[in-house]
Write a structure and sequence with these properties.
Structural class: alpha+beta
Strand order of the largest sheet: 1-2-3-5-4
Strand content: 15-25%
Helix content: 40-55%
Distance between the termini: 73 Å
Largest sheet: 5 strands, mixed, barrel
Number of strands: 5
Radius of gyration: 27 Å
Order of helices and strands: HHHHEEEEE
Number of helices: 4
């Protein structure tokens, strides 16, 4: 049984469409691209036995997955765990309850309530606007807005 070029093309396009629909982290797309490449080779007249096409498909799929997935994820900044939390530095929040000096309380920021540590030696009263100066895991380190750093 031979696998004709358009079988590879359909398989490749289905795998690429599945990757785009699933948005699962760029695993399947490499298999789809490999199938499209084999389709192009077959359409251009490369005469290879089925076992060779399957072996080439496997090597190209796994090889490109191992070589290109990491750089692709970094380039698209998909693996940037914690990147959103770090973007909170410099933003302004509102104290929800009095926070004693160097103590922990709650601050509202971007519509959510966050644990926050008062990074100053003065009381931060409820309703006071504060600036996020650092993020430690999921805790905001805050100072009064406009306070010298």
């Amino acid at each position: 049984m031979a696998i004709v070029w358009w079988h590879w093309l359909v398989l490749g396009l289905l795998l690429i469409a599945l990757e785009l629909a699933a948005s699962g982290g760029f695993y399947i797309i490499f298999f789809g691209i490999a199938a499209v490449v084999i389709s192009l080779m077959a359409a251009l007249g490369a005469e290879t036995p089925v076992w060779a096409e399957l072996a080439l498909f496997s090597v190209m799929s796994v090889g490109s997955l191992l070589l290109f997935r990491g750089p692709l994820m970094r380039w698209l900044n998909v693996d940037g765990a914690g990147a959103d939390v770090d973007s909170l530095v410099g933003e302004t929040g509102v104290v929800q309850q009095d926070i004693a000096p160097h103590d922990i309380g709650r601050v509202e920021l971007r519509g959510s309530s966050w644990r926050a540590r008062n990074n100053t030696a003065t009381l931060l009263p409820a309703g006071r606007r504060v600036t996020v100066v650092r993020v430690d895991r999921l805790m905001l380190i805050v100072e009064a807005e406009g306070a010298p750093s």
